[in-house]
Amino acid sequence: MSLSVVIPLYNGEDYVEETLTSLAAQTHPPDEVIVVDDASTDDGARLAQAGLDRLAALGVSRTELLRLPANGGPSAARNRGLERAGGTVLAFLDADDCWREDCCSEILRCMQGHALDLMVLGFDTSDPGDYFPDMAALRGEVVPLEGTLFRLPRVTASASHPDFFMGRASNVAVRRGVIGNERFAEGSHVNENIDFWYRVAKGIVKRGGAPAPVGLLAEPVIRYRILPDSLSHRRCDDWRRLQVPPSLERFRDSGDGEDRRLCRTLGRRWLTFALDSLPDDAQRAAFCDAHGVLLRHFDIDLPLLWRAA
Hints:
It holds the Pfam family Glycos_transf_2. Keywords: Transferase. It comes from Nitrospirillum iridis. InterPro entries: Glyco_trans_2-like, Nucleotide-diphossugar_trans. The chain is α/β, with parallel strands linked by helices. It folds into 2 domains: 3-224, Spore Coat Polysaccharide Biosynthesis Protein SpsA, Chain A (Alpha-Beta Complex); 235-306. The protein contains 9 helices and 11 strands. The protein is globular. Strands 1, 2, 3, 4, 5, 6, 7, 8, 9, 10 and 11 form an 11-stranded mixed β-sheet that branches. Helix 8 packs antiparallel against helix 9 (281-297). It has helices at 16-24, 44-57, 74-84, 103-113, 155-158, 192-208, 246-250, 257-277, 281-297; strands at residues 3-9, 32-37, 62-67, 89-92, 98-99, 118-125, 131-132, 143-146, 149-151, 172-175, 214-224.
């Protein structure tokens, strides 16, 4: 079993060296590391190449810096890396995050030892007290396997749980063969990770039945850096810039209860973010007026102030 790590990079000169250093420090190094530079305008690509050279010197069998000719967004970068990766297991790592030194070995050990097709990884963040998973909140969603490793027997149902995060901090590893033709939704910058991983998980469940061969490692093997300009912490001055999460459009006409629960969870997060980040009531009212029909389609109540919108 071999592991490929794909790192999408855009203007990450402040962090990418530390990210690649965390891979160099692995007790079991990955077999392949691909950095996809999404037309950066800073020094990040040069620093990434230097980091890849150090990994190659340490014995990583294949390293590559793939430069895209134009900026296409993180989904496009992930897709190009996915298509280049040759490992039997694939993991993504954001260019500002870091792996704990045993992350790679734990991925391979757990996936091989328990015949897992997909594995969700625990993380902590640069904000004290912000971590995943909160096992008390996920009671009833997991079945013990060993130590801090659990099975997610109903992974598509778990994905819609408000305290479950699959894709935040790129905290998923997957057998390359089960991805099939699924790809990240290019052009989307809102919940595009969960949209992709949910579709991959649906495919696993469809092929393998229940319980799904999906695991959850309930310890923080990823350090997720929350940046001041990250989307989830950014103010927005125009409601039109708040993209519809791709899952809401994708599953709008689905009769599957788990699809609808996922959309309800993502829609509520989207609405909450809009109300918190927009600058005034006029902008909030315009957002609710534009998207009220879609939100109500998934049984999401608008605030009383704008319920008539």
